Amino acid sequence: MKYQLVRIGSGIPGLDGMTQGGLPFPSTILVAGPAGTGKTTLGLQFLAQGARDGETGLFISTLSESIQWMLRFTSNLTFLKKEYFGQQIVYDDFSGLIKQAKDYRDVLHALEEKLTTLMPQRVVIDSVTVFERFKDDYRDLLYDFSVLLKDVQATTILTGEVDPTEPYPVEVAHVVDSVLLLTSSLTTEGGRNRHLEVLKMRGTNHVTGRHLMAIDRNGITVQVGMG
Amino acid sequence: MRSPRHPRRKGGRRLADDERLLDHLDETLRNEKARRLLFIARYSLIPKLNLALLDLLLRRQSRQGIYLSIDRPHKFMDLLLRKRDIPRQKLTYVDLVTKGTVGGDRVGDVKALLSVGGFFWLKLMTNTFEQVFDGMSGNQTQVKLEDASFLLLDNLSVMPAYNSESSIREFFQELRGLLERYERLQVFLITHGDIHPTMLSILKEFSDRVVKLEGAMG
Ligand SMILES: Nc1ncnc2c1ncn2[C@@H]1O[C@H](COP(=O)(O)OP(=O)(O)OP(=O)(O)O)[C@@H](O)[C@H]1O
Ligand SMILES: [Mg+2]
Question: Which stretches in chain A have pLDDT values below 70?
Fold first, then answer.
Protein backbone atom coordinates (compact mmCIF):
# COMPACT_ATOMS: atom_id res chain seq x y z
CA MET A 1 0.00 0.00 0.00
CA LYS A 2 1.80 3.09 -1.26
CA TYR A 3 1.47 6.52 0.20
CA GLN A 4 0.91 9.18 -2.43
CA LEU A 5 1.92 12.77 -1.98
CA VAL A 6 -0.89 15.19 -2.66
CA ARG A 7 -0.09 17.39 -5.64
CA ILE A 8 -1.66 20.70 -6.54
CA GLY A 9 -1.72 22.43 -9.91
CA SER A 10 1.04 25.00 -10.26
CA GLY A 11 -0.96 27.13 -12.66
CA ILE A 12 2.02 27.21 -15.04
CA PRO A 13 1.25 25.44 -18.33
CA GLY A 14 3.92 22.80 -18.93
CA LEU A 15 5.27 22.66 -15.37
CA ASP A 16 2.96 20.05 -13.86
CA GLY A 17 3.92 17.61 -16.61
CA MET A 18 7.55 17.93 -15.48
CA THR A 19 6.76 17.18 -11.83
CA GLN A 20 4.49 14.12 -11.77
CA GLY A 21 1.32 16.16 -11.90
CA GLY A 22 1.94 19.22 -9.76
CA LEU A 23 3.61 20.67 -6.71
CA PRO A 24 3.68 18.63 -3.48
CA PHE A 25 1.14 19.73 -0.88
CA PRO A 26 2.17 20.83 1.66
CA SER A 27 5.72 21.85 0.81
CA THR A 28 8.08 24.80 0.43
CA ILE A 29 9.45 25.84 -2.93
CA LEU A 30 12.19 28.32 -3.70
CA VAL A 31 11.81 30.13 -7.01
CA ALA A 32 15.15 31.76 -7.64
CA GLY A 33 16.41 33.94 -10.44
CA PRO A 34 17.94 37.28 -11.40
CA ALA A 35 15.84 40.44 -11.85
CA GLY A 36 13.02 40.26 -14.33
CA THR A 37 13.11 36.50 -14.84
CA GLY A 38 9.46 36.00 -13.83
CA LYS A 39 9.52 35.07 -10.12
CA THR A 40 6.65 37.34 -9.11
CA THR A 41 4.64 36.36 -12.17
CA LEU A 42 5.09 32.68 -11.34
CA GLY A 43 3.94 33.28 -7.78
CA LEU A 44 0.84 35.12 -8.89
CA GLN A 45 -0.03 32.41 -11.42
CA PHE A 46 0.29 29.84 -8.66
CA LEU A 47 -2.13 31.80 -6.45
CA ALA A 48 -4.56 32.34 -9.34
CA GLN A 49 -4.67 28.58 -9.88
CA GLY A 50 -5.55 28.15 -6.21
CA ALA A 51 -8.28 30.76 -6.51
CA ARG A 52 -9.75 28.85 -9.45
CA ASP A 53 -9.59 25.64 -7.39
CA GLY A 54 -11.48 27.22 -4.51
CA GLU A 55 -8.43 27.60 -2.29
CA THR A 56 -7.21 30.59 -0.33
CA GLY A 57 -3.90 32.22 -1.15
CA LEU A 58 -1.73 34.65 0.78
CA PHE A 59 0.73 36.93 -1.00
CA ILE A 60 3.27 38.52 1.29
CA SER A 61 5.34 41.27 -0.18
CA THR A 62 8.56 42.09 1.61
CA LEU A 63 9.50 44.79 -0.88
CA SER A 64 7.30 47.70 0.21
CA GLU A 65 5.18 47.60 -2.86
CA SER A 66 1.68 48.79 -2.14
CA ILE A 67 -1.20 46.73 -3.41
CA GLN A 68 -2.13 49.62 -5.64
CA TRP A 69 1.16 49.38 -7.56
CA MET A 70 1.07 45.68 -7.66
CA LEU A 71 -2.44 45.75 -9.15
CA ARG A 72 -1.38 48.34 -11.68
CA PHE A 73 1.60 46.35 -12.89
CA THR A 74 -0.33 43.13 -13.00
CA SER A 75 -3.57 44.55 -14.41
CA ASN A 76 -2.99 43.26 -17.93
CA LEU A 77 -2.24 39.72 -16.78
CA THR A 78 -5.23 37.70 -17.98
CA PHE A 79 -5.17 35.07 -15.20
CA LEU A 80 -5.42 37.54 -12.31
CA LYS A 81 -9.04 38.50 -11.80
CA LYS A 82 -9.59 41.67 -9.76
CA GLU A 83 -12.25 39.95 -7.67
CA TYR A 84 -9.65 37.48 -6.35
CA PHE A 85 -7.98 40.18 -4.29
CA GLY A 86 -9.19 40.37 -0.74
CA GLN A 87 -11.11 37.14 -1.29
CA GLN A 88 -9.26 34.11 -2.63
CA ILE A 89 -6.00 36.03 -2.72
CA VAL A 90 -5.08 38.11 0.27
CA TYR A 91 -2.21 40.55 -0.04
CA ASP A 92 -0.07 41.75 2.82
CA ASP A 93 2.90 44.06 2.93
CA PHE A 94 5.51 43.02 5.49
CA SER A 95 8.22 45.45 4.47
CA GLY A 96 7.68 47.97 7.29
CA LEU A 97 7.65 45.26 9.89
CA ILE A 98 10.83 43.69 8.52
CA LYS A 99 12.62 47.03 8.58
CA GLN A 100 11.63 47.71 12.19
CA ALA A 101 11.97 44.23 13.62
CA LYS A 102 14.77 43.82 16.16
CA ASP A 103 14.45 40.08 16.05
CA TYR A 104 13.30 37.81 13.26
CA ARG A 105 10.80 36.24 15.68
CA ASP A 106 8.77 39.44 15.47
CA VAL A 107 8.29 38.70 11.79
CA LEU A 108 7.68 35.04 12.50
CA HIS A 109 4.89 35.92 14.93
CA ALA A 110 3.28 38.29 12.47
CA LEU A 111 3.36 35.55 9.86
CA GLU A 112 1.95 33.05 12.33
CA GLU A 113 -0.87 35.46 13.16
CA LYS A 114 -1.68 35.89 9.50
CA LEU A 115 -1.53 32.17 8.73
CA THR A 116 -3.56 31.00 11.71
CA THR A 117 -6.29 33.50 10.94
CA LEU A 118 -6.53 32.89 7.22
CA MET A 119 -5.40 29.24 7.01
CA PRO A 120 -4.42 29.56 3.35
CA GLN A 121 -3.53 26.56 1.20
CA ARG A 122 -1.10 28.58 -0.91
CA VAL A 123 1.40 31.19 0.21
CA VAL A 124 3.87 33.33 -1.70
CA ILE A 125 6.61 35.26 0.08
CA ASP A 126 8.11 37.69 -2.41
CA SER A 127 10.98 37.76 -1.66
CA VAL A 128 12.99 36.11 1.12
CA THR A 129 16.19 37.85 0.12
CA VAL A 130 15.44 40.83 2.39
CA PHE A 131 15.53 38.50 5.39
CA GLU A 132 19.27 38.27 4.93
CA ARG A 133 19.43 41.36 7.13
CA PHE A 134 18.87 39.03 10.09
CA LYS A 135 22.35 37.73 9.27
CA ASP A 136 23.33 35.14 11.89
CA ASP A 137 19.73 34.14 12.42
CA TYR A 138 19.00 33.71 8.73
CA ARG A 139 19.12 29.93 8.78
CA ASP A 140 17.04 29.70 11.93
CA LEU A 141 14.57 32.08 10.38
CA LEU A 142 14.26 29.99 7.24
CA TYR A 143 13.89 26.84 9.27
CA ASP A 144 11.23 28.32 11.59
CA PHE A 145 9.35 29.73 8.63
CA SER A 146 9.24 26.40 6.86
CA VAL A 147 8.09 24.49 9.96
CA LEU A 148 5.29 27.01 10.44
CA LEU A 149 4.26 26.86 6.80
CA LYS A 150 4.13 23.06 6.87
CA ASP A 151 2.14 23.06 10.10
CA VAL A 152 -0.43 25.34 8.56
CA GLN A 153 -0.58 22.91 5.62
CA ALA A 154 0.24 25.19 2.77
CA THR A 155 2.34 24.93 -0.33
CA THR A 156 4.59 27.96 -0.23
CA ILE A 157 6.62 29.70 -2.88
CA LEU A 158 9.54 31.73 -1.59
CA THR A 159 11.12 33.89 -4.23
CA GLY A 160 14.82 34.58 -4.06
CA GLU A 161 16.77 37.18 -5.94
CA VAL A 162 20.21 36.32 -7.19
CA ASP A 163 22.70 38.15 -9.32
CA PRO A 164 23.29 36.54 -12.68
CA THR A 165 26.59 34.98 -11.62
CA GLU A 166 25.08 33.18 -8.64
CA PRO A 167 22.88 30.20 -9.53
CA TYR A 168 20.67 30.25 -6.42
CA PRO A 169 20.72 31.31 -2.75
CA VAL A 170 22.39 28.31 -1.16
CA GLU A 171 21.08 28.73 2.42
CA VAL A 172 17.50 28.82 1.23
CA ALA A 173 17.92 25.95 -1.22
CA HIS A 174 18.88 23.56 1.59
CA VAL A 175 15.92 24.40 3.77
CA VAL A 176 13.16 24.13 1.15
CA ASP A 177 11.69 20.98 -0.40
CA SER A 178 11.97 22.16 -3.98
CA VAL A 179 13.98 24.60 -6.05
CA LEU A 180 12.93 26.11 -9.36
CA LEU A 181 15.49 28.20 -11.21
CA LEU A 182 14.52 30.94 -13.62
CA THR A 183 17.24 32.22 -15.92
CA SER A 184 17.64 34.12 -19.11
CA SER A 185 20.40 34.07 -21.68
CA LEU A 186 21.38 36.18 -24.63
CA THR A 187 20.73 34.68 -28.04
CA THR A 188 23.10 35.08 -30.95
CA GLU A 189 20.62 37.53 -32.46
CA GLY A 190 20.88 39.73 -29.37
CA GLY A 191 17.51 38.72 -27.97
CA ARG A 192 16.92 36.82 -24.74
CA ASN A 193 15.73 33.32 -24.04
CA ARG A 194 14.01 32.55 -20.80
CA HIS A 195 14.52 29.22 -19.05
CA LEU A 196 13.03 27.24 -16.21
CA GLU A 197 14.77 24.37 -14.45
CA VAL A 198 13.52 22.09 -11.66
CA LEU A 199 16.71 21.78 -9.61
CA LYS A 200 15.19 19.68 -6.87
CA MET A 201 11.76 18.48 -5.83
CA ARG A 202 11.55 16.12 -2.89
CA GLY A 203 9.47 13.01 -3.36
CA THR A 204 9.23 13.66 -7.08
CA ASN A 205 10.73 12.10 -10.16
CA HIS A 206 11.03 15.37 -12.04
CA VAL A 207 12.31 16.27 -15.47
CA THR A 208 15.81 17.75 -15.29
CA GLY A 209 17.61 20.38 -17.32
CA ARG A 210 16.71 23.83 -18.55
CA HIS A 211 13.51 24.27 -20.50
CA LEU A 212 12.52 27.19 -22.61
CA MET A 213 9.75 29.38 -21.24
CA ALA A 214 7.90 32.48 -22.33
CA ILE A 215 6.12 35.26 -20.47
CA ASP A 216 3.21 37.19 -21.90
CA ARG A 217 -0.13 38.49 -20.65
CA ASN A 218 -1.17 34.90 -19.95
CA GLY A 219 1.80 34.49 -17.65
CA ILE A 220 4.56 31.92 -17.92
CA THR A 221 4.37 28.94 -20.25
CA VAL A 222 7.05 26.26 -20.23
CA GLN A 223 7.95 24.48 -23.44
CA VAL A 224 9.07 21.16 -22.09
CA GLY A 225 11.85 19.57 -24.07
CA MET A 226 12.91 22.85 -25.62
CA GLY A 227 16.16 23.87 -23.99
CA MET B 1 -26.82 20.72 27.06
CA ARG B 2 -26.17 22.54 23.84
CA SER B 3 -24.52 25.91 23.94
CA PRO B 4 -26.23 28.85 22.20
CA ARG B 5 -25.99 28.53 18.46
CA HIS B 6 -24.24 31.76 17.66
CA PRO B 7 -22.51 33.08 20.71
CA ARG B 8 -20.71 36.32 19.90
CA ARG B 9 -17.29 36.34 21.35
CA LYS B 10 -14.80 39.11 21.50
CA GLY B 11 -11.35 38.43 20.18
CA GLY B 12 -12.37 35.25 18.41
CA ARG B 13 -11.27 35.32 14.81
CA ARG B 14 -13.38 33.48 12.35
CA LEU B 15 -14.04 33.91 8.69
CA ALA B 16 -17.44 33.63 7.05
CA ASP B 17 -16.51 30.39 5.27
CA ASP B 18 -15.40 28.79 8.51
CA GLU B 19 -18.69 29.72 10.11
CA ARG B 20 -20.56 28.13 7.21
CA LEU B 21 -18.59 24.92 7.53
CA LEU B 22 -19.31 24.87 11.26
CA ASP B 23 -23.05 25.33 10.67
CA HIS B 24 -23.00 22.63 8.03
CA LEU B 25 -21.33 20.15 10.40
CA ASP B 26 -23.67 21.13 13.18
CA GLU B 27 -26.65 20.25 11.00
CA THR B 28 -25.07 17.09 9.61
CA LEU B 29 -24.19 15.75 13.03
CA ARG B 30 -27.29 16.74 14.92
CA ASN B 31 -28.46 13.74 16.96
CA GLU B 32 -25.93 11.56 15.21
CA LYS B 33 -25.96 8.11 16.76
CA ALA B 34 -23.22 6.55 14.65
CA ARG B 35 -20.14 5.86 16.73
CA ARG B 36 -17.60 5.63 13.93
CA LEU B 37 -17.82 8.54 11.53
CA LEU B 38 -15.61 9.04 8.52
CA PHE B 39 -15.31 12.45 6.88
CA ILE B 40 -14.03 12.63 3.33
CA ALA B 41 -13.05 16.12 2.24
CA ARG B 42 -10.75 17.80 -0.20
CA TYR B 43 -7.11 17.69 0.98
CA SER B 44 -7.17 21.48 1.21
CA LEU B 45 -10.09 21.49 3.65
CA ILE B 46 -8.64 19.05 6.18
CA PRO B 47 -7.08 21.60 8.57
CA LYS B 48 -10.28 23.66 8.56
CA LEU B 49 -12.37 20.56 9.05
CA ASN B 50 -10.28 19.56 12.06
CA LEU B 51 -10.79 22.96 13.54
CA ALA B 52 -14.50 23.16 12.76
CA LEU B 53 -15.14 19.75 14.31
CA LEU B 54 -13.33 20.71 17.49
CA ASP B 55 -15.22 23.98 17.54
CA LEU B 56 -18.51 22.11 17.23
CA LEU B 57 -17.70 19.44 19.80
CA LEU B 58 -15.97 21.58 22.40
CA ARG B 59 -17.78 24.89 22.13
CA ARG B 60 -21.24 24.37 20.67
CA GLN B 61 -21.81 20.93 22.13
CA SER B 62 -19.71 21.41 25.29
CA ARG B 63 -18.35 17.90 25.04
CA GLN B 64 -15.04 16.56 26.25
CA GLY B 65 -12.73 14.37 24.30
CA ILE B 66 -9.41 13.37 22.83
CA TYR B 67 -7.57 14.75 19.83
CA LEU B 68 -5.15 12.29 18.31
CA SER B 69 -2.74 13.88 15.89
CA ILE B 70 -0.98 11.85 13.24
CA ASP B 71 -0.38 14.61 10.75
CA ARG B 72 0.51 17.78 12.60
CA PRO B 73 1.96 18.62 16.01
CA HIS B 74 -0.78 19.20 18.55
CA LYS B 75 0.85 22.48 19.51
CA PHE B 76 -0.27 23.97 16.26
CA MET B 77 -3.86 22.87 16.76
CA ASP B 78 -3.69 24.25 20.25
CA LEU B 79 -2.60 27.58 18.83
CA LEU B 80 -5.50 27.58 16.37
CA LEU B 81 -8.00 26.83 19.13
CA ARG B 82 -6.53 29.52 21.32
CA LYS B 83 -6.72 32.10 18.53
CA ARG B 84 -10.40 31.36 18.11
CA ASP B 85 -11.35 31.21 21.78
CA ILE B 86 -12.40 27.60 21.45
CA PRO B 87 -12.31 26.08 24.95
CA ARG B 88 -9.45 23.61 25.35
CA GLN B 89 -9.92 22.67 28.99
CA LYS B 90 -11.89 19.59 28.11
CA LEU B 91 -9.50 18.26 25.53
CA THR B 92 -6.62 15.85 25.85
CA TYR B 93 -4.09 15.73 23.07
CA VAL B 94 -2.44 12.53 22.05
CA ASP B 95 0.39 13.52 19.78
CA LEU B 96 2.01 10.93 17.55
CA VAL B 97 3.97 13.50 15.57
CA THR B 98 5.95 15.40 18.13
CA LYS B 99 8.83 13.48 19.50
CA GLY B 100 8.74 13.29 23.22
CA THR B 101 8.37 11.02 26.14
CA VAL B 102 5.16 9.65 27.52
CA GLY B 103 4.16 12.19 30.06
CA GLY B 104 2.56 15.52 30.63
CA ASP B 105 3.63 18.42 28.55
CA ARG B 106 2.43 21.92 29.12
CA VAL B 107 1.06 24.04 26.35
CA GLY B 108 -0.16 27.49 27.20
CA ASP B 109 -2.80 27.25 29.88
CA VAL B 110 -3.77 23.69 29.01
CA LYS B 111 -2.46 21.71 31.91
CA ALA B 112 -2.34 18.20 30.66
CA LEU B 113 -1.77 16.44 27.48
CA LEU B 114 -0.16 13.34 26.24
CA SER B 115 2.84 13.52 24.05
CA VAL B 116 3.76 10.13 22.76
CA GLY B 117 6.88 10.03 20.68
CA GLY B 118 7.08 8.86 17.15
CA PHE B 119 4.86 7.81 14.28
CA PHE B 120 5.86 4.19 14.62
CA TRP B 121 4.32 4.06 18.00
CA LEU B 122 1.05 3.57 16.17
CA LYS B 123 1.87 -0.10 15.87
CA LEU B 124 2.13 -0.46 19.61
CA MET B 125 -1.01 1.47 20.14
CA THR B 126 -2.95 -1.75 20.47
CA ASN B 127 -3.01 -2.09 24.24
CA THR B 128 -0.84 0.71 25.48
CA PHE B 129 -3.36 3.41 24.71
CA GLU B 130 -5.29 2.79 27.88
CA GLN B 131 -2.17 2.22 29.90
CA VAL B 132 -0.89 5.59 28.86
CA PHE B 133 -4.12 7.18 30.04
CA ASP B 134 -3.91 5.25 33.28
CA GLY B 135 -0.38 6.41 33.80
CA MET B 136 -1.49 9.95 33.15
CA SER B 137 -4.46 9.90 35.44
CA GLY B 138 -4.93 12.03 38.49
CA ASN B 139 -3.85 15.61 38.09
CA GLN B 140 -2.11 15.00 34.80
CA THR B 141 -4.74 14.01 32.32
CA GLN B 142 -7.28 16.61 31.42
CA VAL B 143 -9.93 14.24 30.16
CA LYS B 144 -10.01 10.64 31.28
CA LEU B 145 -10.75 7.97 28.77
CA GLU B 146 -13.94 7.02 30.57
CA ASP B 147 -15.19 10.61 30.51
CA ALA B 148 -14.32 11.31 26.90
CA SER B 149 -17.23 11.47 24.50
CA PHE B 150 -15.19 11.80 21.34
CA LEU B 151 -11.92 10.76 19.80
CA LEU B 152 -10.89 12.81 16.77
CA LEU B 153 -8.07 11.68 14.46
CA ASP B 154 -6.66 14.58 12.48
CA ASN B 155 -5.78 13.15 9.07
CA LEU B 156 -5.74 9.46 8.27
CA SER B 157 -4.54 9.97 4.70
CA VAL B 158 -0.94 10.25 5.90
CA MET B 159 -1.07 6.98 7.83
CA PRO B 160 0.25 4.76 4.99
CA ALA B 161 3.36 6.93 4.84
CA TYR B 162 4.49 5.55 8.20
CA ASN B 163 2.73 2.24 8.66
CA SER B 164 2.27 -1.06 6.91
CA GLU B 165 -1.14 -2.30 5.89
CA SER B 166 -1.14 -4.94 8.60
CA SER B 167 -0.34 -2.47 11.36
CA ILE B 168 -3.04 -0.14 10.08
CA ARG B 169 -5.58 -2.97 10.16
CA GLU B 170 -4.40 -3.86 13.65
CA PHE B 171 -4.82 -0.26 14.71
CA PHE B 172 -8.46 -0.18 13.63
CA GLN B 173 -9.09 -3.55 15.22
CA GLU B 174 -7.84 -2.12 18.47
CA LEU B 175 -9.94 0.99 18.05
CA ARG B 176 -13.01 -1.25 17.78
CA GLY B 177 -12.05 -2.86 21.07
CA LEU B 178 -11.64 0.56 22.66
CA LEU B 179 -15.12 1.57 21.49
CA GLU B 180 -16.56 -1.56 23.05
CA ARG B 181 -14.92 -0.85 26.37
CA TYR B 182 -15.77 2.86 26.40
CA GLU B 183 -19.38 3.15 25.44
CA ARG B 184 -19.58 6.94 25.45
CA LEU B 185 -16.83 7.31 22.88
CA GLN B 186 -17.65 8.48 19.36
CA VAL B 187 -14.81 8.34 16.82
CA PHE B 188 -14.30 10.93 14.07
CA LEU B 189 -11.97 10.01 11.24
CA ILE B 190 -10.84 12.44 8.57
CA THR B 191 -9.25 11.79 5.20
CA HIS B 192 -9.18 13.11 1.67
CA GLY B 193 -10.44 10.91 -1.13
CA ASP B 194 -7.24 10.51 -3.17
CA ILE B 195 -5.70 7.83 -1.02
CA HIS B 196 -4.80 4.25 -1.85
CA PRO B 197 -8.02 2.27 -2.50
CA THR B 198 -7.04 -0.28 0.16
CA MET B 199 -6.68 2.45 2.76
CA LEU B 200 -10.01 3.94 1.76
CA SER B 201 -11.71 0.57 2.07
CA ILE B 202 -10.16 -0.04 5.50
CA LEU B 203 -11.55 3.30 6.64
CA LYS B 204 -14.97 2.67 5.14
CA GLU B 205 -15.19 -0.81 6.63
CA PHE B 206 -14.43 0.58 10.02
CA SER B 207 -16.96 3.40 9.86
CA ASP B 208 -20.69 3.17 10.31
CA ARG B 209 -21.31 6.51 8.66
CA VAL B 210 -19.43 8.25 5.85
CA VAL B 211 -19.87 12.01 5.46
CA LYS B 212 -18.67 13.40 2.16
CA LEU B 213 -18.12 17.13 2.15
CA GLU B 214 -18.80 18.29 -1.39
CA GLY B 215 -18.50 21.50 -3.34
CA ALA B 216 -17.57 24.61 -1.43
CA MET B 217 -17.68 22.59 1.80
CA GLY B 218 -15.31 19.94 0.60
N1 LIG C 1 1.91 41.39 -19.38
C2 LIG C 1 3.13 41.05 -19.78
N3 LIG C 1 3.39 40.87 -21.08
C4 LIG C 1 4.61 40.51 -21.49
N5 LIG C 1 5.67 40.33 -20.67
C6 LIG C 1 5.45 40.50 -19.37
C7 LIG C 1 4.19 40.86 -18.85
N8 LIG C 1 4.30 40.94 -17.52
C9 LIG C 1 5.58 40.67 -17.24
N10 LIG C 1 6.28 40.42 -18.35
C11 LIG C 1 7.71 40.09 -18.41
O12 LIG C 1 8.09 39.47 -17.22
C13 LIG C 1 9.16 40.21 -16.64
C14 LIG C 1 9.06 40.42 -15.16
O15 LIG C 1 8.57 39.39 -14.52
P16 LIG C 1 8.55 39.44 -12.94
O17 LIG C 1 8.21 40.78 -12.42
O18 LIG C 1 7.69 38.34 -12.56
O19 LIG C 1 10.08 39.16 -12.63
P20 LIG C 1 10.79 39.00 -11.24
O21 LIG C 1 11.70 37.83 -11.37
O22 LIG C 1 9.83 39.01 -10.16
O23 LIG C 1 11.70 40.30 -11.18
P24 LIG C 1 12.31 41.05 -9.88
O25 LIG C 1 13.48 40.25 -9.43
O26 LIG C 1 12.75 42.36 -10.43
O27 LIG C 1 11.23 41.16 -8.87
C28 LIG C 1 9.03 41.58 -17.17
O29 LIG C 1 10.27 42.21 -17.11
C30 LIG C 1 8.53 41.34 -18.55
O31 LIG C 1 9.62 41.08 -19.38
MG1 LIG D 1 9.50 40.29 -8.49
Answer: none
| Domain CATH number, residue B59 | 3.40.50.300
Q: What is the DSSP string of A61-101?
A: E-S---HHHHHHHHTT-TT--GGGBTTTEEEEE-HHHHHH-
Does residue B27 belong to any structural domain of this protein? Answer: no
Q: Tell me how many domains chain B contains.
A: 1
Interface size A-B, in CB pairs within 8 Å, comes to: 49
Rounded to a whole number, what is the largest CA-CA distance in chain A?
Answer: 54
Question: How many helices (H) does chain B have, and how many strands (E)?
Answer: 7, 7
Q: Which residues of B touch A55 (CB under 8 A)?
A: 44
Enter the ipTM: 0.87
- B131: contact with A, CB 8 A cutoff: no
Q: Assess if residue B3 is contained within a domain.
A: no
Q: pLDDT tens digits for B97-132?
A: 765 544 444 444 443 445 554 444 554 455 556 766
Q: What is the pLDDT of residues A175-213, one digit of tens each?
A: 999 999 999 999 999 899 999 999 999 999 999 999 999
- Which residue from B164, B165, B194 is facing A6, i.e. has the nearest CB? B194
CB-CB contact of A158 with A131 (8 Å) = no
B202 lies in a domain? Answer: yes
C-alpha distance from B169 to closest chain A C-alpha (Å) = 12
CB contact under 8 A, B199 and A1: yes
Q: Provide, as residue numbers in chain A, all residues whose Cβ is less than 8 Å from the Cβ of B50.
A: none
Interface test with B, best of A117, A123, A153 (most B CBs within 10 A): A153
What whole-number percentage of chain B has pLDDT above 90? Answer: 44
Q: Any idea what DSSP says for residue A112? A: H
- Whose atoms come closest to the Cα of A126: which ligand? 2
Show the domain range for B46: 34-212
- pTM of the entire structure? 0.90
Q: Which CATH number fits domain A6-223: 3.40.50.300, 1.10.10.10, 1.20.1250.20, 3.90.1150.10?
A: 3.40.50.300
Residue B186 lies in a domain: yes
For β-strands A27-33 and A219-223, DSSP reports them as unpaired
What pLDDT, on a 0 to 100 scale, did the predictor assign at position B174? 83
Domain ranges of chain A: 6-223
Mutate to test the pocket of ligand 1, among A215, A218, A220 (most ligand atoms within 8 A of CB): A215
Judge whether A52 is closer than 8 Å to chain B, CB to CB.
no
* pLDDT tens figures, B160-189: 887 889 888 988 988 898 899 899 999 999
- How far is it, in rounded angstroms, from Cα A157 to Cα A180? 10
Under 8 Å between Cβ of A68 and A101: no
